Amino acid sequence: MSWDSKDIMELRLEFVKFAMQEGANRRDLCRRYGISAKTGYKWIRRFEQGDTALADQSRRPAHSPTRTAAELEARVVQMREAHRAWGAAKIVRRMNDMGGEQTPSPSTVTRILHRHGLITAEASTDASRWKRFEHKHPNDLWQMDFKGCIELDNGRRCSPFTVLDDHSRFNLALDACGSTPTPVVRKHLRDAFRRYGLPLRINADNGPPWGSPAQPGQLTALAIWLICLGIRISYSRPRHPQTNGKDERFHRTLKAEVLAGRHFRDLKRAQLELDAWREVYNHERPHQALNMDTPVSHYQISPRAYPERLPAIVYGETDMVVRVGINGEVRFKSQRFKVSSALANRHIAFRPCAQIDGSYDMYFAHHRIDTISLKGQGKRR
Hints:
Layout: H1 8-19, H2 26-32, H3 37-48, H4 70-82, H5 88-98, H6 106-115, H7 121-126, E1 142-146, E2 150-151, E3 157-165, E4 171-177, H8 182-196, E5 201-204, H9 221-228, E6 232-235, H10 245-259, H11 267-283, E7 320-323, E8 329-332, E9 335-338, E10 347-352, E11 359-364, E12 367-373
Helix pairs in contact: 1-3, 2-3, 5-6
């Protein structure tokens, strides 16, 4: 006979009653009920001691000398509630940084969080590590993008503008934008440049205002301004957001720790919340990709200061310099080529392409716009 989970208590009582009958063969009864002799005698002993329910007893020890102290456990819970998306490793590192006589291990913190219902299945899935290529030095590459729109309580929308340093994951800009035109983005970038200096390169997707969705790679007014500052501009491959992967990952963290389930009255309130969290992210929050260091500990201000006046563009002596028409076209060697309307009335240079006979590279300052062939007009390479 097997112990049916539906009436297991009844079976135990039935077994005990039979076992306590005069002349009962207790070992034979154990075999009939499919239990070991040890288990059978345990039920009999408990019944004789007055336990007539024979319910399962907790296996939890009466005393646990290795159990985390209540005060320490409370600190873990408090930190998790303050930073709801932080995992055990971040909590431990932050507790160490803040000082304290005793800090639990990450595994202990995980058990505490589970015990208090502070780890969901979704959080466990999101805890998988991201491994990405990292540039060697701060300011070698910045990544910029907009986080998706947030509905505000006053009926307006907010699009957080984010800029991240590739090497250190340091957040350089986190601005609540009500609109996303070129002047707004230029203002926020200018503020970042004045504070942190210029990067060597900035990567963005092909969306406006820095890109052209219809013609990926085509220069916009914002891109031209960055190039005039001496910054190299690059674009993610169409439909491949992972090219801007660190900023995309930053957006996931921003959503988990600030935006999810939150409502903001207006842009001003949203900016206050973003500013407060940015301070935590850069200066307090341990980063797994940085061996649990904070981004600020890996970042250094760029030695390239922001110039308040744009430097003049100088081309080489052998460059063939041509002025772009108001329609975004240039005329070169009796042929017309379309470049970008944003370059209207600016000068670009043509340089012979050493690899392809009869072809020329078009440059605006240091940026190669395209490679054209005099045999097959304007083909992009």
